[in-house]
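Consider one such protein record:
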Amino acid sequence: MSAKGRTTQRLDKVLSNLGFGSRAELKKKAKQGSIVVNGTVMKDSGKHVDPYTDIIEFEGETVQYREFVYLMLHKPPGVISATEDLRDRTVLDLLDEDYLIFEPFPVGRLDKDTEGLLLLTNDGKLAHELLSPRKHIPKTYEAIVEGRVDDEDVRLFAAGVTLDDGYVTLPGELVIHSHEERGDGAQLSRISLTIHEGKFHQVKRMFEAVGKKVIYLKRVSMGELRLDEKLEIGAYRELTEQELSLIGRALPR
């Protein structure tokens, strides 16, 4: 976010958004002298401040303000890409309270049994841009497929595959990495596939359309953002400044 267009905010709103307490609690803290702005004790928590340039201290601790969070999660299988669910664990259940106060949500979704790159943020504008069908943001997956994927499949995917509901997909880039034989004699293929849309169960349905079955699926990239290979399954971290630039965002100065 650039300095241009910034507006000031109520001090209690800034602090409550960062999880320092409710507005009523912060009003009491201000009267007790617990909040300092630019070296001055602030008795009125309703005063307006610029959270990016003013130095705010709460009970002796300097407050690091930010409006948005951007998290890269290596989503594990068995967890659903939602903010709440009555039966299953969600990706939010993997986050610490320090991040939950920002009310992040997953950008798009991965199937319950699919692992890999998932972006979580509270930046609604970014989510809209990344998910807009008009953008055709490429998404790359690695998969193990039951059956022998061959050059004919590469050709079919490049032309667009007709799914079970009659929809013809946009061209996809299918790369065959290796073939192997399972213990029961079944042929397995290790592949990567880049698609430019996000229909329901699309990768699995594309292979079903050519008579094959995906038995393992992992998303490794979304646009230019790639899954950190060092990030273990179920782990997450904030995006780096370089990664933010890849998705069209910049850290506020």
